Amino acid sequence: MTSKLLPIFISLILIIFNYAKAESQPDIGYSLEINYQTYNVIGETETEINTSFNNKIKFIENIDIIYIDAYTQWNYNIINDDTTCEINKFSVSVTYILPQIIISDSNKEVANLFKSYLERLYRHEETHCAISVKLLHDIYIAIEKGQSSNCNDQREIADRLEQDISKNQEAFDMYTNHGEIELANSPFGEEKYLAYCKISLPVFKNN
Description:
Elements: H1 5-24, E1 31-41, H2 46-54, E2 71-80, E3 87-103, H3 108-111, H4 115-145, H5 151-176, E4 204-206
Parallel strand pairs: 1-3, 3-4
Antiparallel strand pairs: 2-3
Helix pairs in contact: 4-5
């Protein structure tokens, strides 16, 4: 390749890369904060680890997740002008409540028996997050569109989308039996938003 063609080739690669990035991860337009609350799972045997999962309520205050092993909370604050749809504030926070198995040389083998389960559990919670992030992005777009069109109409659209957040979350848990089943094709359109919701914590924590 000649030196004259090299800059053009590099520019083309950058354009393709940026286009692919835009396609895979939309610009949501609002601030998103990811937080973590974890509880420790301990044990030297399968029975002890399962018992520790069942005792999780002792480690988590004010959250009743006794029947499930993980949970995703989301809070959002939307302030906009009712007449002009001008957005004064649009912030979203997601809090993951997750188990981490305490691992050491003495329980490494038995802990690894739970690794695939924890990884699937984390993916399930990431999808919960992405479903909310996607719908909140749709709400943001609706309100923003109201700045140049009928604000009342767009606010009604935003209100309907807000109701879909809980509906879609409940449907996702029903379809997957709270994460026991992984969907081959999701009907919620959240795939492009998963990158925003990636859990950075490992499933194991060193003792």
